[in-house]
């Protein structure tokens, strides 16, 4: 494991710190021992049960993102991994030990000594979906038609996850309409209805949906938004609406090992977005992606320095609708699709057929105030600092209260997915 130095220069060094990087782990994913081991013992933040659980499911989320990104190297990626993690965690309530262990290992529960995982998950969901967060997220388990479900599964599912399973009618049009209606209700109509047909033979369908529209703590002036160049690579550019603030107050660091500039902008509701901007437009993003863990992001949050900068951010409105089944199979969850034991759910042999994810994400100039918070006192710099998101970048939407990963994106072209 290599040490990362987050450096901020003003001609001389203003501040530095070290973070742990897991780049180089097998298959681009950090192993469990390095992901959630020693850091938790040292940092009081991770001693809080809900924060420790948030770190675990977020590490699952970074794994899912890595697999999805590697399978789509030339495309934008947008995921809200928490909704998928929630569906899997809820499904584990119906799994016998062998299958439950497979799910829990993928969610990093095997590193948590918490006798009440599902009760703590209820607390996590309540925190991240509080009204001021502006996050809509929900998960659902859908079963094959006429399946008899044990009440001993339904009761804890409803208690901890606030959801009831759905049993299909067998009429594909009716079932798709019902699922669409549920998605619309959970996201207040913000996610478009799907026209994709349901698989003809569903045994278990997991559905994770999420929508977020961010509100900056300090809003952008719409009059300063203009069409500017976004560099897809060294040769190709596109014109996109770019929001600008010549005197933005943000938190900043330069990671010399990953060759990227990191910036954090606060959002209302105790949330923030962390941007990873490579030094070159053609730079491979893989090394940055392999470094992402809950603990790495938490260390970044502690190390960044408050500065004033000339900031440019593209307006963004992205959506994703599709399966993540293959990605989960690649994350050592193949057994859920082949020969799982869900006998706590029903007496019939059932298995996971499909995991569907729908997500919507956007930000524009909207914000709470016109001036930076007086709590943020920027460091004095001896040179002007520019932070222009005008080339491919990665962003992480994080809940500050719990540390939970809520959205993650790879933006190669901000015009859309």
UniProtKB/TrEMBL annotation:
Is Signal among the key words of this record? yes
**GO biological process terms held by the UniProt record:** negative regulation of angiogenesis; positive regulation of neurogenesis
Subcellular compartments:
Secreted
**What UniProt keywords apply to this chain's record, in alphabetical order?**
Glycoprotein, Secreted, Signal
GO CC term (a single one): extracellular space
Boundaries of each Serpin domain copy?
62-414
Enumerate the InterPro entries for this protein: PEDF_serpin_dom (IPR033832), Serpin_CS (IPR023795), Serpin_dom (IPR023796), Serpin_fam (IPR000215), Serpin_sf (IPR036186), Serpin_sf_1 (IPR042178), Serpin_sf_2 (IPR042185)
Q: Which GO terms describe its molecular function?
A: serine-type endopeptidase inhibitor activity
Q: Name one Pfam family in it.
A: Serpin
N-terminal signal peptide: 1-19
Disordered: annotated segments: 20-40
PANTHER family reported in the protein's UniProt record: PIGMENT EPITHELIUM-DERIVED FACTOR, SERINE PROTEASE INHIBITOR, SERPIN
Q: Which family does it belong to?
A: Belongs to the serpin family.
Q: What is this protein called?
A: Serpin domain-containing protein
Provide the organism lineage as a comma list.
Eukaryota, Metazoa, Chordata, Craniata, Vertebrata
